[in-house]
Amino acid sequence: MRPRLVELVRGSSTKLLLCVLAPVAGLGVDPSLLINVFKDFSPGADFKGVSQVQGFHDESRAYLFQGSSRSVRVPEETAQRMLQKLRGKSEFTVAVTLKQELLNSGVILSIHHAEQRFLELESSGQKSEVRLHFQAKGQQTHTEIFPYTLADNQWHKLSVAISASHVTLYVDCNRIYERVVSVPVMDIPEDTSLWIGQRNSAHGLFKGVMQDVQILVMPQGYITQCPDLNRTCPTCNDFHGLVQKIMELQDILAKTSSKLSLAEERMNGLDNCYCERTCSVKGVTYREDQAWTDGCKNCTCSNGTVQCETIVCPPLECPDGSVPAYVAGECCKNCQPMCLFTGQELVEGDRRAVHHPSGLCLLYECKGHTMHKVQNSGDCPELNCPEAEQVTVTDRCCKVCRGHDFCAEGNTCMEHSDCLNLEAGASCSCKEGFRPLRSDNAYCEDIDECAEGKHYCRENTMCVNTPGSFMCICHTGYIRIDDYSCTEHDECVSEQHNCDENALCFNTVGGHSCSCKPGYTGNGTICRALCDGLCLNGGSCVSPNTCMCTQGFTGKRCETDIDECKAGRSTCANDTVCFNLDGGYDCRCPHGHNCTGDCIHDNKVKHNGQIWVLDNDRCSVCSCQMGQVMCRRMVCDCENPTVDLFCCPECDPRLSSQCLHQNGLLTYASGDTWTENCQQCQCLQGEVDCWPLSCPPADCDFTLVPEGECCAHCVSDPCQAHSVRNDITKTCEDEHGITRFSGSSWLKHGTECTLCQCKNGHICCSVDPMCL
């Protein structure tokens, strides 16, 4: 039941709120956005292993999927009509109502072409997981695993909502997981297959009942299952809050109106005033429309705002005897008198020193097209560095020490340009976030990272340019995660996360990430302790630098043997004597006595040689051996007809407990494992479950999955890479001089079949043979 507002405001002074309950009308969905599988496809009697049954409700058809030999594939024409709605989309929701058999592992829905899984939803009862497989950029299959048990023979409403790089899992109208993933690519070929209740004819067989299998091309499709989650329909409490807000706003409006009236009266008196807006730059005030030159820019004051344009230097054609050169205080080069000296072109004021092998040095200066000798000003100053560290420079006779500060002697580097000391002189370099306006880097301008797309601002932020950098400003109503990201709420603070108790939670856009605390290792959702030293004598690390010792040992590293005889921990009967041993003890009969060898276990007498099963673990067997109780896991003897199949599934001889390989030619017994298509598969009591092989992380920009292998390898040649960790700051320039960001692709000019791609500053082109 949902509230319905009958009347909110009547007249100008009377306000009435009447909140009543009314049944929710069915949520209408545009048919062009809905793929209702069981409405357009009826797998009933025409398909072996499928039958129509009573569902969770009576408003739509439900089907029971059973048996190990069936082939429920949607006819090609119907499948293409369905999949056309999904092609090219990156926002959609997969929804289903189901009741899955206990411990069954099977595929709910699979859209694949050959070995490419474009979209597949799977539930594993063996591992208590929900798995989402989809195609990501670079034709890579991405798998997202959600720990959750659906296979419990109970009805569940399941929906997985994907919005670009954001995925949310809902079960029974509860949001269970929310994560940031790779963006799905739904470039679905025409002859793609759509399977229901299985991946193909021999693998991933779902067992149970399914109803309302739908794909909605919208990220909020879960509200068709759970209308109460649709917050566009407010509750009575929402209406009470709205009315209170309206009353507050009316009070604010009345006060604001009074202030505006007073301000309007004052502003009317300003009609006869003239207010000129000025501009202040570097301590100088400029009037409206006043122009000036600032370095390599022509600037104007317009309505109180400084507007500057970069000076475009005209081409110079200098007469004979002169060359273009920069002049102090001017942006563009001017024609300057030239001197030729030892094959070099020098301009007015340039100096060159000539060093003779005898140690004599002569200094010349360019004046009036001629090199004139400069009178020696005296002896060179004494240097406080060894001779090996003394450097000869070209514009003076005296040597300097390596690391000499040439910049301190004077330089031409202007604002936003730093002077750098080189070995034999000084040079200008633009500061970070600025680009040069001329070839010597003396004048630099700010780079607008926001306008040029060279920023890292992510969702829910606005990029604002600043001198030499940029800022990411959160949109109204969002909170900051880091310098580049903002989100609606903080899942870490609200404790809506799945991080291990020994992990740190970091809020991210639309979700969160987990990282194990110092002293622990793992993926964040599961963390285990690390110990600096080894835990000795079979001990295990349970918390940082804390060992859990095996029976018979104690101490920080389990280095101390426990004396079970003094501590009263032995099971020796009264007629034997306890002797301590490393990690244990022995029960010995005194010389001249006839001992029974019995044991004491759980305050009960166990006779020597007696064997029994533990009350709390049917798969563990204990025995009494000369006063000592020895326990171990049950040894599976498949030749024994009374073997416990619960403890030894590999001994199950029943055909119903065997599994068929995906190729239909091999049979596996319960407990067998194998690898198929980069997945680890296992047969348990007739059920096959497969999960992706775990691969070590490849920490590099370019990776390749070699043919016949499953895991990515780092490669140095970007053109061989299947996947690229794109860096938007590393751009490419195509044949037209157009800047391309990493990850972008284009057709090479003048061709129809050559596709080029920018990979972190490298251009890789290839010819599509199917296009020729």
From TrEMBL:
GO terms for molecular function: calcium ion binding; heparin binding; protein kinase C binding. Residues 61-233 form the Laminin G domain. The keyword DNA damage does not apply. Residues 403-440, 446-487, 488-528, 529-559, 561-596 form the EGF-like domain. Residues 277-336, 597-652, 657-715 form the VWFC domain. The keyword Calcium applies. Residues 1-26 form the signal peptide. Keywords: Calcium, Disulfide bond, EGF-like domain, Glycoprotein, Repeat, Signal. GO terms for cellular component: cytoplasm; extracellular space. Disulfide bonds join 531-541, 549-558. PANTHER family: NEL HOMOLOG, PROTEIN KINASE C-BINDING PROTEIN NELL2. This is Neural EGFL like 2.
